[in-house]
Amino acid sequence: MDRSRLKIRPIIGLEIHVQLATKSKLFCSCPVEFGAEPNSNVCPVCLGMPGVLPVMNRQAFEFSVRTAVALHCEIAAFTKWDRKSYYYPDLPKNYQISQYDLPLSFDGAFDVPAGVGGGTRRVGIIRAHLEEDAGKNLHEHPGITRVDLNRTGTPLLEIVTEPDLSSADEAYNFCVELQRLVTYLGVSEGNMQKGQMRFEPNVNVAIEHDGQEYRTPISEVKNLNSFRAVRGAIAHEIERQVNDWMADRDYVIGKRPKENRGWDDVRGITEFQRSKEEAHDYRYFPDPDLVPVEISDECLERIRASVGELPLEREARMQADYGLSQADAATILRDRATVDLFEEAAGFGHAPTLGKQFISFWLAQANARGCRIAQLGIDAGRLGELSRITADGVINATAAQAVAEKMLDSGDSPTAIAERDGLVQVRDQGAMAGWVTQAFEANAKAVQDALANPKKKAQARGFLLGQVMKISGGQADPKMVGRLIDEKLSGLGGS
To answer: Which of 292, 390, 440, 456 could form a disulfide with 449 if both were Cys (CB 3.0 to 4.6 A apart)?
Structure first.
């Protein structure tokens, strides 16, 4: 069969599990702690012992509602808990407490960058519901499986999208933007290396051939924990399903079952695990030990108010209001407290310069200390002042970095630090003209290269500028020095 005659349309939906940033588990007081000694953060409730009663974590519920509001979901005034029954070694109760027919939120939409061509793509959200996580099977020793139940009962928000995505790249963009959203909202750390976000794409393909459409069976790729894996698994599934249909025209919905598949990151392929379960296989029924949850209008409005402007909207506004590039705005937006600090500091300074300083030396200082810029302890007024005196030419960019380092250990103003340490730029034209003359006299070859060889002029000019800065001890204004060098070269016959 000639593949070029086929019209192929991928159909992709996502199920995402987001671990919520609560201190304790969903239905007991055991701490949520990554890397703890195996089976040390457990109790009779999360171990499923007879006679124990779960109690809902209010913070987990409010985090879930906050996320659902940001996803433009309808929030249910009344929701309940259900038991999802299945046996697995790391599920000690043999059921998971989840939500089935009355989820806490539904019918939402999430706008994500469309990629090539710009703009956004709207992806429908079927539901976002709260449930508990299972434990973890450890396969570190051949022939032995060990079980760590520390993760059992950790609160998860499961987000289920409509099958609105049409490529591996669109799914990748969705996952990146969702991670940014949940970390911005403060509801999750979103650390995939710690298993705090796990993605499960549901993929099939509509194939049009000779005026007839065929749809391959849906495959769900389980437990992907990186953006790269999401893109790779979906791309592979699309290719595999088209090839399987070309080899067997009965490889279609209704004639072949849905599949659960795993992703082999080393080999770059998905592998069959088992036929996919349907809802009735889990024997859902209302949990008799937990009361339903009703949310008041006052509580919902309080949570709505905590969401505020969403990252994608704020990124666009920051580009327009502060003259930032998309990349710089996105970098600053990685932490909500940091972007709040930036916007406050911009009121005291020069926003474009402040943006450059945030993503250069302030970010470097935060990374070196293992914290965020907002946690460096420097107030908005001093941050803004440093950007302003840099933009005004009082100090140059190199001096600004030196001043910043002193600001970390001192409560003095940037201006006071610059004056005390002799970092204020000399803007006296007479003094700078004298330094330019010294540099020209000491570097005759560079002057000759600039005058005689157009190809070497830029390099020679840069060298002469560096020599002037050296002579001045870094205090000369580079812009003024550059203009004086050009004027002097022109006077000597340079073009």
So the answer is: 456
- Residues 15, 156: one domain? yes
Cα R_g (the chain), whole angstroms: 30
Report the residue count for the chain: 495
Helix (H) or strand (E) holding 9: strand 7-19
pLDDT at 275: 82
Predicted confidence at residue 11, as pLDDT, reads 98
Neighbours of 458 (CB within 10 A): 10
The pLDDT of residue 249 is 92
| The pLDDT value given to residue 29 | 97
Calculate helix-pair angle for 429-442, 444-452, nearest 10 degrees: 90
Same domain (yes/no): 245, 367: no
User: Residue 284 has what pLDDT?
Assistant: 93
Question: Quick one: pLDDT at residue 266?
Answer: 93
Cα–Cα distance for residue pair 213/291, rounded to 1 Å: 47
Structure tokens at 109: 């939409």
Statement to judge: residues 156 and 276 lie in one domain: yes
Same domain for 436 and 361?
A: no
pLDDT at 477: 78
Three-class SS of residue 483?
helix
Q: Are residues 450 and 344 in the same domain?
A: no
Question: What's the token pair of residue 323?
Answer: 């003259």
Q: How far is CA 26 from CA 45, 78, 79, 252, in A?
A: 10, 19, 16, 40
Pair 413, 384: CB distance under 8 Å: no
pLDDT digits (tens, 9 = 90+) for 323-354: 999 999 999 999 999 999 999 999 999 999 99
- 193 occurs within a structural domain: yes
Whichever domain contains 468, its CATH number is: 1.10.10.410
Tell me which residue range forms the domain holding 457.
Answer: 429-491
pLDDT of residue 495: 55
Residue 248 in any domain: the answer is yes
Considering the domain boundaries, does residue 169 fall inside one?
Answer: yes
Q: Residue 461 to residues 74, 127, 336: CA-CA distances in angstroms?
A: 63, 62, 43
Q: How many CA atoms lie within 13 A of 238 on its CB side?
A: 21
Q: What is the pLDDT of residue 87?
A: 84
Domain contains 24: yes
Q: Note whether 389 and 479 are same-domain residues.
A: no
Contact partners, residue 384, CB within 8 Å, separation at least 6:
344, 345, 346, 347, 348, 349, 354
The list of the chain residues with pLDDT below 50 reads none
179/263 same-domain check: yes
pLDDT at residue 196 in the model: 96
